[in-house]
Amino acid sequence: MKYLSTRGHDARPEFCDILLGGLAPDGGLYLPEQYPQVSRAELDGWRTLPYAELAFRILSKFVTDIPAEDLRAICQRTYTAEVYRHARPGDDASDITPVHWLEPGRLALLELSNGPTLAFKDMAMQLLGNLFEYVLERRGEEINILGATSGDTGSAAEYAMRGKHGVRVFMLSPHGRMSAFQRAQMYSLQDENIYNIAVTGMFDDAQDIVKAVSNDAAFKARYKIGAVNSINWARVAAQIVYYFKGYFGATASNDETVDFCVPSGNFGNICAGHIARSMGLPIGRLVLATNENDVLDEFFRSGVYRPRRTAETHVTSSPSMDISKASNFERFVFDLVGRDPRVVAGLWKDVDGGGAFDLSQTPYYARLPEFGFVSGRSTHADRLATIRKVWEQYSVMIDTHTADGMKVALEHRSGERPMVVLETALPVKFAETLREALGRDPERPAELEGIEALPQRVAVMAPDVEAVKRFIVEHVGA
Ligand SMILES: *Cc1c(COP(=O)(O)O)cnc(C)c1O
User: What residue's CA is closest to ligand 1, atom 8?
Assistant: First the structure.
């Protein structure tokens, strides 16, 4: 399988060539040259496979430069019931992503948040950790991952990379601005290859430092600086698997069709759903849910894609969906415009210049229904009401992001197909809003009791690019 850039660069790298990198040289995103098609016979054969084997079969279609037995071993190491151990009572952790019915045959949660950091990013990031270690060892290379986080992504990256040979993680976070639980999750890691840096500033300051360091080409090359951001193709590829697993879990035969609802921010999760559907998985609708940061809902309703400025971005109680632009959206638009890279390059010339584009009067927009997308948005009040409703009707507690999904899913139920809402985090991560909605605390997994009292390992420093560079140099020692 070869990969192309959405903006038309003529290189055709393979999976391992793009694993450790980010954007294509022309600023585009990587996608497979074509989506592999899954035959009915194959789908029938996959229905009862355990998660790790299913992951291997699906990923084999995208990863043709790792020997099959190695890839299978990586999938088996990654997707275990020990790693994904936070299944709801009554559900089987060895399913990795169990389907939890609220109304049997009609409405379900797909549990994607049973990994170490209790959010769906573990699904892809844990695989990435094992792939990085494998490829770096094969090449005799090292990488120093530099990132900024306000919560979910940073902790998922740290839990995926801890103890991995050839990998160090330098993760910047805004000092004193994360919850005590989030701080404890990250800072209590004692692994030698994990470095937490708390910057006395806001998340944007931390993000700016990461950009400044990455833009210093000489420093970046000398200290082998890399990233694990949401445009990483391997993360999207890993996420395709649970759409298949969720489909099998929600149906009795491959004649049925399922709708999925996806709480969305950077369009990474739902992009994987779009690809699964393009491969032939019988998905009816892909329902995209946003919070108040509704740049994607606006596009699907109007054909206008208008990224927001930082000052226009709302701080909400579903913070992992607080985005101003959706970094993976270009992948879908590439398919929508018939995979014409000149069209994509033209549209993103406007977007990268701070502008917007409007497809409403084009044949592309008229084709949207073929892709199955519909959308909706949710507000803080909607989240509270939905959390209460799901608790009262089904005795199930959901987190704020999943509540955004549930709110929009209920508006788009077909009555014919089951609606499966992707559960992107566990409620304990957002206890404050859960208390506001229900007047009670969410349950905490036993092993995380008292985590706030564990010793923490974090360097506090001013938001200063040079200070961060010095810290990296001291700890890389090259
Ligand atoms: C990252 C995240 C999202 C958004 O996912 P995208 O792939 O960026 O669309 C939703 N919910 C939670 C809890 C997340 O961590």
Answer: 266
H or E element in which residue 73 lies: helix 68-78
* Distance of CA 69 from the midpoint of ligand 1 (Å): 31
- Residues whose CB falls within 8 Å of the CB of residue 313, separated by 6 or more in sequence, listed in order: 293, 322, 323, 324
**Nearest CA residue ID for atom 14, ligand 1:** 320
Is 121 an active-site residue?
yes
> pLDDT digits over 394-410, tens only?
999 999 999 999 999 99
Domain housing 322: 93-118+234-438
Q: Is the confidence at residue 332, as pLDDT, over 80?
A: yes
Ligand 1 centroid–CA 476 distance in Å is 31
Question: Is residue 146 assigned to a domain?
Answer: no
> Rounded to the nearest whole angstrom, what is the distance from the C-alpha of residue 268 to the centroid of ligand 1?
8
Cα angle value 469/473/478 (rounded, 5°): 145
Q: Which residues line ligand 1 (CB under 6 A)?
A: 119, 121, 152, 230, 263-269, 320-321, 401, 424-425
Among the listed residues 121, 164, 325, 429, the single catalytic one is 121
The domain total for the chain is: 1
Report the CATH number that the domain containing residue 247 is assigned in CATH.
Answer: 3.40.50.1100
Give, for ligand 1, the residue of 109, 110, 111, 121 to mutate: max count of ligand atoms closer than 8 Å to Cβ. Answer: 121
Give the CA dihedral 190, 194, 195, 201, nearest 10 degrees: -100
Does residue 212 lie in a domain region? no
Q: Please, what is the average pLDDT of the chain?
A: 95
- Please give the share of the chain, as a percent, with pLDDT higher than 90: 87
> Does 441 have pLDDT greater than 90?
yes
344 in a domain, yes or no?
Answer: yes
Is residue 300 one of the residues assigned to a domain? yes
Q: What is the dihedral of CA 344, 364, 289, 448, to 10 degrees?
A: -40
- State pLDDT tens for residues 209-226: 998 998 899 999 999 999
Q: How far apart are CA 84 and CA 94, in angstroms?
A: 8
Residues 261-284, mean pLDDT to the nearest whole number: 97
